[in-house]
Design brief:
Length: 195
């Protein structure tokens, strides 16, 4: 599986280098399918690995053990979602994870991360907007925790572009909030699948 993913990356990168149009036009040629689904037991090992190994595209840097993730996955108060991405070249595998604490009046994104391999594909923004839509449908305010490090500025930019603003600071944790007035649909070049 890993060998096939590397081969797909090589073919994808060659195609991108040879492409002469805009970045978004290239993305439109990929036939991307982005899946957001509740974390299942068989996803836990990869989910744990993502929390430990993903630093650049990680909003808080919080790490969770297999056992902690399993408890959160089964909790009525938490939403643990795992994301996967594929395109005409093959699968990227499980490349994203988010943990949302769901209190009746306000939801809080405790963790949102994406593998660096998909940084340029725009799927982080799609995931953020999916969470916004879920919170709005539930009638809850949406907050997100952000802990800055020397490598995750891109995730703060993702939140800011989505419409989050800082409303509180607790030590190193910035608490951001979204008013849920502007939720962007996924771009036309991505087939969003909700599991």
């Amino acid at each position: 599986m890993r060998r096939r993913m590397y081969q797909a990356d090589i073919a994808r990168n060659r195609a991108e280098e040879a492409f002469s149009g805009a970045s978004e036009e290239f993305l439109g040629t990929l036939g991307m399918a982005f899946t957001i689904a509740p974390c299942r037991e068989e996803d836990l090992k990869r989910a744990e690995e993502l929390t430990v190994r993903t630093h650049q595209l990680n909003t808080t840097g919080y790490t969770y053990s297999y056992e902690e993730l399993d408890l959160l996955r089964q909790s009525d108060r938490h939403l643990l979602l795992v994301c996967s991405l594929s395109d005409k070249y093959g699968s990227y595998g499980k490349i994203g994870l988010t943990l949302v604490e769901q209190d009746p009046e306000a939801w809080t994104v405790k963790l949102l991360l994406m593998s660096c391999r998909v940084m340029s594909k725009g799927v982080g923004t799609i995931l953020v907007n999916h969470i916004l839509a879920l919170a709005k449908a539930a009638g809850a305010r949406l907050r997100a925790e952000f802990v800055s490090n020397d490598r995750n500025r891109a995730m703060l930019v993702t939140y800011k572009f989505a419409g989050f603003r800082e409303v509180e600071r607790r030590g190193e944790v910035a608490v951001l909030e979204h008013d849920l007035s502007r939720i962007q649909p996924p771009p036309p070049y991505v087939d969003l699948r909700i599991g």
